[in-house]
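hey so u asked for the seq, here:
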Amino acid sequence: MNAATVGLLTGMALGFAAFFGGFWAFLLVAFLGLVGLIIGRVVQGDLALSDFTHSRDRQ
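ran it, structure tokens below
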């Protein structure tokens, strides 16, 4: 699935959430989509959890 198709499906999901559920449903769907994206990137290996947990003091 290419990026345009994923963007289209994401936009449609957010549009349906906003239309049928209102603003808070839109925000919930957007937030859960972001969480799903992060989990998917971690599972795929494109993103490491250590990127978020390292202290800024260490170099």
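The mean pLDDT is 83. Residues 3 and 36 are 16 Å apart (CA to CA).
lmk if thats what u needed
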